[in-house]
Structures are given as C-alpha cells and as structure tokens.
Amino acid sequence: MSRPQDPPRSFFPFGNPFRNISPKGTKLSPQLLAVICAFEASLEERLKNLIPKSKDEVLSFSWMTLAMQALRESHNGIKTLMTDLELPVHDWDEKWIDVYLDISVKLLDICIAFSSELSRLNQGHLLLQCTLHHLSSSSSDQFIRACSLLDGWRQHISSKNPRIEKCGSILDNLVGSSDMPKVKKSDKGKVLMQAIYGVKALTVFVCSVFATAFSGSTKNLMDLDVADVYSWAPTFKGLQNLVNEEIKVRFSNGKFTVLYELEAVDSSVRELYPTIRGVVDVIETESHAKIVDKLGGAAENFSQGLDLLAKEVDGFFQVVMSGRDALLSSLRSGATVNDRILGGNRDAQVVN
Question: Which domain of life is it from (predicted)?
C-alpha cells in the first residue's frame, strides 16, 4: 500500500501564501480583540490535544478521529464567531464570500473522498469476517477458502481509490487559495479572515495527513509554514513536525500500510497465512488457535475504530454543508449570517 520511493512533493513554488496574512499593526477594539483572542486560544487548545503522547498514536484511528473532531469543532467555531461579530451578509465583501464558498466546496469533495475510502476499508473488513468464519472449522476445504479470502483481502486493501488519488490536486488548490483577501475598512472582516486563516491551516494539515495515509504515498504530505506572529503558530509547527516526521519514518520502513490498526491486522494475517496453506499438523496446534484469536481481536479493533472515524468524517461533512447552505440562504434573503446559521440571537451583544 505504501510506496516509500515516492519523492517528496515541492510546495509553494511561487512563495508561501501562508505568510500573506499578518496581524501585525492591526489595531482592534478591546471587544474585537477579546473575540479573536478567545477564538485562537480555543484553536491552540485543539492543536495541543492532537499532540500524540507516543509515536504509536500517530495515524491510529483514535488519533484520526480526534483530528477530525478538532476540524468539526473549529469550523463550528467559525459559525459562533460570526454570531459574536454580528456581521450581516450585506456587509460581507464579495471576496470573503468567494473564499468561504471556495474552501467549503473543496472540503466537501475531500470529505466524500475520505468517506469512500473508509467504506472501501470496511468492505475489506467483511472479507476478514468471512475468513474468521471459515477458520472456525477444522475442514481442510474451509482452510483453502480462508486462504483465498486472505489473498482477496490483501489485494483489496492494496488497490487504489480513484477519489483519494484526486485529493492531492484538491489540497494543492486549497493551499494555493490560502492568500486571504485583504480587509481595509472592516475590523470585523479582519477578525473573520484571521480566524478563517487559522482554521484553514489546521484543515489543510489534517486533510493532508489523511490523504497521505489513505493513498499510501508521501506526495500528499504538506509542511505548512505559518508566520510566528500567530499565538497558535508554535503549537501548530510542533504538532506538524512531529506527525509528519513519524509518517515519513513509517514510509521509509516500507510497511504495507501506515495506518496503525490496519498494520496490526496485516501483521496477524502474515503470521496466520503460512499455517493454513495445507500444513495440517500446524493448523491443529494450540498456537494456531492463538493466532486466529489474535487476528479476530485485531479485526475487531480495526472495525470499531473505522466506525468511529467514519462518523466523525460524516459529522464534519454536515458542518461544512450546513455552513455553506446557511451563507447561501442568507445571501438570498438578506438576513444576517448568524440568523441563518444558529437560528438567530436577538440578545447577542454587538461587537464594535
């Protein structure tokens, strides 16, 4: 599944768009400053929660689920920020709207690709379940069938998903559009663009890690250079360096897959496979039973982690879709963004 010989992809050939926004020199009111500081503090806390306690956590389904949860919460945070700002749609610059809609449509495409890959992996799990069913019998015919199923499982898992293969170009476009529009007259607009920038950096990082893991190639792995002027930048860089370096190490080892739970399943499959290729005296031993149990446990952990991750990806999809729909509805009706997104908040304090 992995191809360690893939050369690293070169990014930012025309300069680094992630340096084009800088809060230096920005003079905001105390109220607006409090809003953006609170938002960025929450963003940094989510980044800290993603720092793995051990390298084994990197690309485990539990870490990936946490990462997708961080994305969902951060994008929800943008909705809450819009409410705090009470920024009506008619006050939005057309460029801001274009940025928001452009980001959202790319994220929806990526979510669809990730969901299709998780569905494909789940189909592979069904092959494992059938294998374990046949291994519960002592019939040599059933062992032959189990061998065939394991061959099918490895072939299925090793195959490429065309939708995942397209994620690289989507991410390139997402990074290429990271040059946020300049905001000259609206302080609220500056706060909104600065917040979107931070969430976008997190989003590109997480999605590039997912695309790398699912594609089996480091060509989708990105190293984003975020300006140090942001309070969350040091935490972001530390997280990105740790995760990306561990991923590169795993690819350099030439593993079948860099996904932790999937590697555990494959390890059990490789251990079990020789014992069911017609070696009758071996398959009847207690050792064989332990190997089968080991595969069963690994397959169960894989399935449970897969289900939780799939739910989070779907949840993130729904957040992006609802935000996009809310903005479009507000544009048609002339209502405020927050009226549509969060059902309105007449008692919310106006931030000047």
Answer: Eukaryota
